[in-house]
Structure formats: structure tokens, C-alpha cells
Amino acid sequence: MADAARRLPPMLGIVGRKHAGKTTLVVRLSAELTRRGHRVMTLKHGTHTFNIDPSTTDTYRHYHEGGAERVAMVSPDKFALIERWAEERSPEDIVAAHLADADVVLCEGFKRHPMPKVEIHRRAAHATALWPSEAAHPGAWRAFVTDDVPTGFAGAVFALQDAEWLARLADWVEREVMR
């Protein structure tokens, strides 16, 4: 895995409490970095199982009724792969297998993983941020996008009140994460 680890693109975790704006942040940052010419890929962590196709589709039947280990769906403009596994894989393993040709991978969730992180925190959604009290790896927190900076945080801060916060965050990602 040492060789695979060297080939991994930069990975940045986007974390926050439920309804803090994680998905919106991933979408906006991905769009800005893509607009700047970067090849951006995303990885979303969920805490429970999911289905990406309804029960009326053939792929659903292949997987659920047929018990296939992997089901791939191909069309002229897309490819999807559904795979069973006995235990959760690390974000590095998934990126190495499927996203290794990215310039950067934005990982929504994975708050317990030691990868570098940006936390989105809005007072209107939650009184407190995850950092520092609920951070499994507090040193992994590198930046905040927020309207309420936690006391003692020494990393980069992008104030939601600043009209240029997204451009400044993208500059920071290019400089500090993608370097």
C-alpha cells in the first residue's frame, strides 16, 4: 500500500454537524476548483446503507434478488458501480481504487479520520462546532468556514460574512492542500 499511498491525490475532509452546510460547501468548492481548471472528485461518507437505484430497475434486481457481488451500470455518458463488502474501507483505499486521477478529492464526512479537514459551522444551525470537543483528531482541523470562530483555533478561517470567502477558500486549497 506504500506505493498506492504515494499516488493518492490530495484529500480534504469537509465536516460539520448535521444541516451545517457540508454538501453545499462541497458543491460550491468543487464548482470553483473545477472552474479554475482542476480535476475535482468527491467522496461522500454515510453512516448507514443506501440504494442508488429504485427497486423497479434491473440493476436493483441484479444486486438484491440476484445477490451479485458487483453490479456495474453503463450508459453513453455515465458509469456506476455498486459493490458489496464485509467491512468499511478506508477513504485512501477507495480513492486509490476509483479516484486516483483527481487533482483533489473532497471528502464529505469522515470526521473521525485523520485526513486534513475544513469544518463548516453556522450559529443558526448549531450552538457549537465539532472542534475541539468532538474532534477525534483535533490537529487534522486546518480551517473553518464559519460565522463563529471557536476560541483557540489557530488554523485558517473563512468568514461567511465575507463576500469573497469561497474564492479565498479555493485559493487556500490550491496553496495548502493541492501544493
Automatic annotation (TrEMBL):
Q: Which InterPro entries match?
A: MGD_biosynthesis_adapter (IPR052539), MobB_dom (IPR004435), P-loop_NTPase (IPR027417)
Q: Which CDD domains match?
A: MobB
The Molybdopterin-guanine dinucleotide biosynthesis protein B (MobB) domain is annotated at 11-136
**An example Gene Ontology biological process:** Mo-molybdopterin cofactor biosynthetic process
Q: Which GO terms describe its molecular function?
A: GTP binding
The organism sits in which domain of life? Bacteria
Q: What is this protein called?
A: Molybdopterin-guanine dinucleotide biosynthesis protein B
Organism field: Pseudogemmatithrix spongiicola
| The gene coding this protein | mobB
